[in-house]
Amino acid sequence: MSSVLGTYARKPVSFKEGKGTYLFAENGDKYLDFVQGIAVNVLGHCHEHLVKTIQEQSKKLWHISNAFVIPEQEKLAKRLTNNTFADFVCFQNSGTEATEASIKIARKYFHKIGKPEKNRIITFEGSFHGRTLAALFAANNPKHIEGFGPKVDGFDQVPFADHEAIKKAINKNTAAIMIETIMGEGGIKMVPDFCLKGLREICDEHEILLILDEVQSAYRTGDFFAFEKSGITPDIVPIAKGIGGGFPLGACLVTKKVSVGMTAGTHGSTFGGNPLAMAAGNAVLDIIFEKDFLKNVKEKGNYFDDGLNKIKTKYPKIIGEIRGIGLIKGLKMLVDNVEFIKKLMNHKMLTVKAEENVIRLFPPLIVENKELDEAINKIEKVCKEMS
Description:
This protein is 36% helix and 19% strand. By secondary structure, the chain is an alpha/beta fold. It folds into 2 domains: 15-33 and 292-386, Alpha-Beta Complex (Aspartate Aminotransferase, domain 1), CATH 3.90.1150.10; 49-288, 3-Layer(aba) Sandwich (Aspartate Aminotransferase, domain 2), CATH 3.40.640.10. Strands 1-2-3-15 form a 4-stranded mixed sheet. The protein has a 4-stranded parallel sheet with strand order 6-5-7-10, with helices on both faces. It has a 4-stranded antiparallel sheet with strand order 13-14-17-16, covered by helices on one side.
């Protein structure tokens, strides 16, 4: 009997090694991994540059308190602010922590400018912002919050991207609107560019903040952030997952305007921004910033789309919709997604479910077309089996 607390319904397989797009089980079986730690390993398993960087940093310094200047942290923060909308970054250890920091920053901003009554945040049905108490009740998924009462107040939920409902929900206590640019757990549902522009306009009209949760989508769309094509500027963006390439790392990016309330002592993280995590984050950016890397992500995403759409056309009673952009994909299934995932695993391909009967596909950003072809072939085989 395992001594690990049973908070996960674990599949009866364990892995001894990973390389690139593949995992190798204890029994020697080779799996095509399109889970990648749930959108975490953007450079695949054990990327040579990431491994080398972590090894080198581990010989010098692992951890030091944030009471001191950490050069690796300064470097990563500067690279992020130089290439995004943000002026400042605070580092965390996960997406949930980054989301919690976003909530705190939004509330503290209004407190600082003399409007402490503005402390409520509008969120959306079907969203997911993490597993801590505030994050759970921000998303308010009945399955996730059951048994964890009393309710953490401060959130007003509306239907997904319903602008009229948003306008009705805004009142004198509203501080911000928080939405995932691409809903991950909710079923790879993209917020269209015109909706993002509309959200920015609503926030500007009512002098409230816009928080765009890019924990799952950062780097994966072929742009640095998924919201960039819309041309808008958010106020706060929490990121995590892929930014550490598999090493625990989260961050909250903010504008100078919104940062004014966050002075010494207002927020902290014992492990956030440690030298080893910062080395990992910088190593990932070394690859992301290589010439044409993100352009290639877009091209690979289009190639994958073409293959998936051919299967959808061939099996219209199995796959109802192809969702996503770049290398963050969702298959909206017309058959049971859990059963389909099991059959894919029998064919040595790993995927993960989402709401709305969706299967999520997260190939690493270094995936090759031949590996995408392998995935397409396995998906087609299961479609045939379930027809």
